[in-house]
């Protein structure tokens, strides 16, 4: 199978280069040639730079999850019937998906100092909006 062939190829490469400090089961990312690591880092930096530009020409009302949810909360309070008829609970995940994905592009849970999802501003905004929804239902 492909994975076995790939592992065998990498093992043969290590042997031919005289690298004997590899431990089976450990990550072999540091075995990449410096040129490949440089290319990867440049590509990653380019993607992150491009991702910062995605919402640069969008008003915060439409690119900040807290502001978006505030608009929906106002709609729900002012026009509860139309809010309910629009099935907003089903629409919000699809509406917020692009904004959240853009914010998660640089998130890497494998880094030592990564931020937990629950600590991210968009997560807290959704959590607060959900609590407001639950509180208003119980009235």
UniProtKB/TrEMBL annotation:
The keyword Nucleus applies. One of its GO terms (molecular function) is DNA binding. GO terms for cellular component: nucleus. Keywords: Nucleus. InterPro entries: GCFC2-like, GCFC_dom. It comes from the Eukaryota. It is found in: Nucleus. One of its GO terms (biological process) is mRNA splicing, via spliceosome. The keyword Nucleotide-binding does not apply. Residues 66-128 form the GCF C-terminal domain. PANTHER family: GC-RICH SEQUENCE DNA-BINDING FACTOR, INTRON LARGE COMPLEX COMPONENT GCFC2. Belongs to the GCF family. This is GCFC2 factor. It comes from Nothocercus nigrocapillus. The lineage of its organism: Eukaryota, Metazoa, Chordata, Craniata, Vertebrata. The gene is Gcfc2_1.
């Amino acid at each position: 199978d492909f994975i076995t062939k790939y592992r065998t190829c990498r093992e043969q490469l290590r042997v031919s280069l005289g690298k004997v400090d590899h431990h089976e089961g450990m990550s072999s990312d540091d075995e990449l040639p410096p040129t490949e690591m440089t290319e990867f880092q440049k590509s990653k930096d380019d993607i992150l730079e491009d991702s910062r530009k995605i919402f640069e020409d969008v008003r915060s009302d439409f690119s900040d999850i807290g502001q978006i949810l505030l608009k929906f909360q106002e709609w729900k309070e002012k026009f509860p019937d139309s809010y309910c008829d629009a099935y907003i609970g089903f629409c919000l995940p699809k509406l917020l998906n692009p904004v959240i994905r853009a914010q998660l592009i640089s998130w890497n849970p494998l880094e030592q100092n990564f931020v937990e999802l629950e600590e991210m501003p968009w997560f807290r905004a959704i959590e607060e909006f959900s609590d407001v929804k639950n509180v208003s239902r119980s009235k």
